[in-house]
Amino acid sequence: MEEIIIFTEQFHQSMEELVEVLFKNEYFGFEKDSQNYGNKIYN
Fold first, then answer.
1. d(Cα 33, Cα 25) in Å, to the nearest integer?
2. What is the spatial distance between Cα 18 and Cα 42, in angstroms, rounded to a whole number?
3. What is the model's pLDDT at position 30?
4. How far apart are alpha carbons 23 and 9 in whole angstroms?
5. Is residue 1 over pLDDT 60?
6. What is the C-alpha separation between 32 and 39, in angstroms, rounded?
7. What superkingdom does the record give (predicted)?
8. Host domain of residue 22
9. Cα gap 23→1, rounded to integer Å
10. Number of domains the chain contains
11. What is the number of alpha carbons within 13 Å of residue 3 lying toward its C-beta?
12. Of 1, 4, 33, 41, which one is least surrounded by beta carbons within 10 A?
């Protein structure tokens, strides 16, 4: 069970980093758009 939690936390961290990279590289005009994209991947 602990491994699942660790992987989940790592996944969330990776998603946050992805959103930040996409926003900084102007793949999205607004930060909210990049957050929505990250949420679609996660869900």
1. 13
2. 11
3. 63
4. 21
5. no
6. 10
7. Bacteria
8. 2-42
9. 34
10. 1
11. 0
12. 1
